[in-house]
């Protein structure tokens, strides 16, 4: 019994396959999009009706940028079986558009009516042409050149003439009507072509072809999700500060762009955080090292230059012969720390940000034009302490920093930001929460109302020789003036040189009360300046080294 049932099922299945209905054409509708930093998941719905048995479903409006391996299809009925699915951008079919579209159907119906009228007109026109030919052919028979009855001859001649005129007029009328119908048909086909083109623009070249089996006829709803390339988003902030005593007004925005070939109309967006023109970054102060050469090292260098030998490039030493390099590398490089060029904070992605997502309740339209679409996500007030910062060794400018404590609770991401301070656009900066400090600094821009200059003190500087040593003293003043109407707090950061050679001694003679970092060579002051107040900070250091040494980096 079971064998017979199985055979019957297989027979029914093969019969359905053999006598499968024509393909069912439909279009997917993008309802929601999850946008990642470098791709997107398109969520689509498809509604259509199927007969019982096996059906081929051709689903259009699928992005050509699809990642085929990510296609997921969900069915609203457990009785529906998906037998196969395949994406293609080269589906061969006579079907070009949705023929159920009311506008297109109306034009098609009109075209059929006009074409029928043209056919009838052509039949009538041909009949009249043959009537004229027949009348002309039988002219001699009708009139009769040998007729002796004048009355009969006159009557026949009159009949021929009138009938000939009637037929010719009918031909002219039929030709005119035919021309009008042809023009109307041309206009209708042109209109149809326009509507087809419009329909084609809404119908992507990519399709998903499904084979499914349904035990009964009915309506089916499918959910189709897939990943597509040529989509990206990046975060962006707008930071407003009314004054240094007010909290930061931070608006989080997203810049979304896509070129999937599909326009997203009224879709629900979810942004997932996963994978400046003024320069307003405060400078990073780095350790400062000087480098020295012993007489032996200089001798080796001169020998290498003379011999034009290949070598290892060592900063401050030139090229060194590889064989002799081993003899002094430990002496020359022991304790050396490579100097780092001054730079500004770059774009870094924090691994903790990977699972952060942002749901947008308002439906959005994102066109497939690879243009930036700016979306405002949310706005929040963030308390901040304000302090000015300057590093005169790099720039004679004071930067306003907003110091945010416990910044992790605001769910910030690393992103550029535009700054508006005291209702004036300042420029761009960067929000960088990917740091280990307990406090995050946001540079709001430089303030021209704070004057900073560096003045060399000549009478306190100079170089002298002491037996087998040289001593060089460098002295200068850092002058800061507050030209604002309110008191400011400012951090001043400077540096003194560090030595990588024990023979070279460095001593700080004057630091005007600065906090001294002997490891990195930093001097730091935190001072307050009243309106119009000027503060002078003196820095003086001494470098002592053997007179036969060459010291560079000062």
Task: Give a description of the structure.
With about 550 residues, the chain is of the alpha+beta class. Among the domains are: about 1-95 and about 205-230, no CATH class; about 100-200; about 230-280 and about 345-450, no CATH class. About 25% of the residues lie in helices and about 45% in strands. It is built from six helices and 31 strands. The protein has helices at about 1-20, 100-135, 140-145, 150-200, 295-305, 320-335, and strands at about 25, 30-35, 40-50, 55-60, 65-75, 80-90, 205-215, 220-230, 230-240, 250-260, 265-275, 290-295, 310-315, 320, 355-365, 375-380, 385-390, 400-405, 415-420, 425-430, 440-445, 450-455, 460-465, 470-480, 490-495, 500, 505-510, 515, 520-530, 535-545, 550. A hairpin with a 4-residue loop joins strand 2 (about 30-35) and strand 3. The chain is elongated. The relative contact order is 0.12. Mean pLDDT is about 80; it is low at about 1-20, about 95, about 200-205 and about 310-355.
List the helices and strands and how they pair.
Layout: H1 2-18, E1 24-27, E2 29-35, E3 40-50, E4 53-62, E5 66-75, E6 81-88, H2 102-137, H3 139-143, H4 150-201, E7 206-214, E8 218-228, E9 231-241, E10 248-258, E11 264-273, E12 289-293, H5 295-307, E13 311-314, E14 318-321, H6 322-333, E15 356-366, E16 373-382, E17 385-390, E18 399-405, E19 415-421, E20 424-431, E21 439-446, E22 450-456, E23 462-466, E24 469-482, E25 488-495, E26 498-499, E27 505-510, E28 515-517, E29 522-529, E30 534-546, E31 550-552
Parallel strand pairs: 1-4, 2-11, 9-19, 12-26, 17-25
Antiparallel strand pairs: 2-3, 3-8, 4-7, 5-8, 6-7, 9-10, 10-16, 11-15, 12-31, 13-14, 17-18, 18-21, 19-20, 22-24, 23-24, 24-30, 25-29, 27-30, 28-29
């Amino acid at each position: 019994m079971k064998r017979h049932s199985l055979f019957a099922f297989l027979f029914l299945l093969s019969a359905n396959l053999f006598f499968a209905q024509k393909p069912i054409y439909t279009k997917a509708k993008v309802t929601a999009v999850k946008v990642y930093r470098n791709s997107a998941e398109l969520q689509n719905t498809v509604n259509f009706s199927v007969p019982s048995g096996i059906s081929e479903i051709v689903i259009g409006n699928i992005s050509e940028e699809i990642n085929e391996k990510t296609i997921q299809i969900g069915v609203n009925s457990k009785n529906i079986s998906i037998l196969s699915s395949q994406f293609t951008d080269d589906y061969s079919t006579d079907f070009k558009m949705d023929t159920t579209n009311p506008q297109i159907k109306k034009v098609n119906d009109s075209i059929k009516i006009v074409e029928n009228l043209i056919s009838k007109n052509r039949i009538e026109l041909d009949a009249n042409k043959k009537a004229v030919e027949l009348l002309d052919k039988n002219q001699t028979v009708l009139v009769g050149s040998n007729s002796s009855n004048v009355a009969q001859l006159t009557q026949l001649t009159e009949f021929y003439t009138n009938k000939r005129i009637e037929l010719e007029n009918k031909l002219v009328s039929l030709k005119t009507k035919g021309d009008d119908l042809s023009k109307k048909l041309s206009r209708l086909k042109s209109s149809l072509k326009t509507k087809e083109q419009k329909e084609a623009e809404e119908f992507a070249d990519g399709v998903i072809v499904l084979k499914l089996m349904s035990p009964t006829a009915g309506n089916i709803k499918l959910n189709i999700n897939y990943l597509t390339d040529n989509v990206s988003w990046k975060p962006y902030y707008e930071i407003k500060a009314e004054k240094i005593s007010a909290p930061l007004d931070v608006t989080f925005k997203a810049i979304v762009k896509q070129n999937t070939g599909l326009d997203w109309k009224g879709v629900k967006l979810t942004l997932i955080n996963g994978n400046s023109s003024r320069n307003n970054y405060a400078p990073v102060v780095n350790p400062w090292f000087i480098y020295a050469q012993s007489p032996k090292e200089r001798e080796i260098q001169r020998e290498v230059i003379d011999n034009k030998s290949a070598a290892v490039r060592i900063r401050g030493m030139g090229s060194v012969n590889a064989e002799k390099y081993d003899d002094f590398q430990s002496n020359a490089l022991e304790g050396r720390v490579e100097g780092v060029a001054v730079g500004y904070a770059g774009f870094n992605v924090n691994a903790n940000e990977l699972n952060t997502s942002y749901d947008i309740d308002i439906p959005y339209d994102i066109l497939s034009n690879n243009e930036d679409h700016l979306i405002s996500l949310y706005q929040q007030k963030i308390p901040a302490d304000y302090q000015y910062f300057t590093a005169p060794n790099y720039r004679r400018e004071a930067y306003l920093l907003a110091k945010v404590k416990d910044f992790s609770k605001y769910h910030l991401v690393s992103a550029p930001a535009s700054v508006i301070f005291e209702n004036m656009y300042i420029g761009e900066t960067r929000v960088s929460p990917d740091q280990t400090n307990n406090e995050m600094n946001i540079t709001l821009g430089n303030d021209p109302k704070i004057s900073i200059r560096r003045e060399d003190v000549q009478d306190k500087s100079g170089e002298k020789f002491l037996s087998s040593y040289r001593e060089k003293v460098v002295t200068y003043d850092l002058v800061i003036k507050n030209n604002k109407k309110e008191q400011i707090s400012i951090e001043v950061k400077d540096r003194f040189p560090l030595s990588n050679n024990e023979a070279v001694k460095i001593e700080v003679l004057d630091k005007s009360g600065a906090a001294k970092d002997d490891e990195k060579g930093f001097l730091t002051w935190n001072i307050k300046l009243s309106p119009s107040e000027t503060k002078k900070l003196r820095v003086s250091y001494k470098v002592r080294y053997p007179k036969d040494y060459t010291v560079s980096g000062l």
